[in-house]
């Protein structure tokens, strides 16, 4: 079976590489010439653990290819995945021009029966619209349009793809469904549960899942603010909640708010979709507001912890990515905090193991340093803004030696408070109050 993936970003590249690992012949297409040139050289344009090995192995096996021009591979493909960006427009709705430009390319090169699949997160009803567009040029018997949303998380995208909680296939015709069930047969055999639905439900499963996860995070973030006032411990609250199987322990880690290329975009797009149907989504609406407030709450906490007698404090920011394990800074709460602190006139020294280059594209004047110690040296406060594993084992003795004043604001509750206090730090975190 021949597969083409249009759009070789975080979603498309991981999808294409992993499908080729199941023995499929896959061509990843992208308009970004530089990106394709890198991939042809076996270089990976994004930080994703395990991706380089999978790409190299399948390129060598002669079943994974990268092209800028997709015409020929598309005309020969049995399945064409759309994985181009669907970034938010000003009104919160998804920008669909890249999807429809890719559909035009598909239609232009459509010469045999094919299945066209939306892998990107697309508004409800997109499958219908795509079907209408292609049907203007081709008879409906010669193609199927399906929805097969991706649920991978950045930073663990390969393992998420290989061990999915579910593969959702939304298809309204048997012929297209059969092709996709054949395509995913190796994963079904490896016990990946496959859920077959109608196309519209599949499109909404994606938005509803992302929105619910965002709601869960905003819930625990609001609980963290109550915990501080009530002098309770948010980690204990999250533990106690998560032991209820109906709630579950994941996505109950408080922080400076959720970021990334999905939750902020998908919650706003879902609100727009719902309002177009005249259905208010009060819970999602409030979670978006709570998320924006959480970043402000984090800045207030940092400013409140600055040493009083300090004229022009220097703030060390550990972590710039929107979360640990990725180089992606899209909607990163850490960058929002940096911008806010810089506007207030504070001097920053910022370190991130992978995301510095992308961070500098967002904030040219950001003062980025190459290590944790460089960030902490002569700083008056250290802020842990991203949940990188390496920040969990910071050498507190060494850090205290080099800091001007020993203050830590741990926005991800990564450190052990008792240890920090023992080493002589003033330690603050999220959702816990220590007299
Ligand atoms: C993004 C969103 O994050 C995700 O929610 C959505 O489901 C798919 O789009 P991601 O892979 O993170 O996923 O996007 P990005 O990393 O921006 O990759 C999109 C790729 O599509 C880029 O490499 C871009 O060059 C390419 N592209 C874009 C095309 O190949 N053709 C186009 O017309 C537009
Ligand atoms: C998310 C969804 O998890 C994934 O299923 C979907 O396909 C794409 O969007 P991603 O955005 O890559 O994945 O990262 P995720 O691990 O979900 O984290 C999103 C944001 O929430 C990050 O900013 C992270 O720091 C934050 N987060 C996550 C919390 O603040 N607390 C948590 O408990 C979990």
Provide an overview of this structure.
The longest helix is centred in the middle third of the chain and has 32 residues, at 199-230. The model has no long low-confidence stretch (mean pLDDT 96). The chain is built from 18 helices and 13 strands. Strand 11 (381-384), helix 17 (396-402) and strand 12 form a beta-alpha-beta unit. It has 435 residues and is of the alpha/beta class. The chain has three domains: 2-197, NAD(P)-binding Rossmann-like Domain (Rossmann fold); 207-290, Orthogonal Bundle (N-(1-d-carboxylethyl)-l-norvaline Dehydrogenase, domain 2); 296-429, Rossmann fold, CATH 3.40.50. Helix 1 (10-21) crosses helix 3, helix 10 runs parallel beside helix 13 and helix 13 packs across helix 14 (333-343). The chain has helices at 10-21, 33-40, 51-60, 71-76, 97-108, 126-135, 157-162, 174-183, 185-189, 199-230, 234-242, 263-276, 282-304, 333-343, 356-362, 372-376, 396-402, 417-422; strands at 2-6, 25-29, 64-67, 79-82, 114-118, 143-147, 167-171, 194-197, 314-318, 347-351, 381-384, 407-410, 426-429. Helices cover 44% and strands 14% of the residues. The strands form two sheets. It has an eight-stranded mixed sheet, sandwiched between helices. One uridine-5'-diphosphate-xylopyranose binds at residues 150-154, 210, 213, 217, 251-253, 255, 258-260, 262-263, 322-323, 387. Residues 6-12, 30-32, 35, 83-86, 98, 101-102, 120-121, 261-262 line the site of one uridine-5'-diphosphate-xylopyranose (UDX).
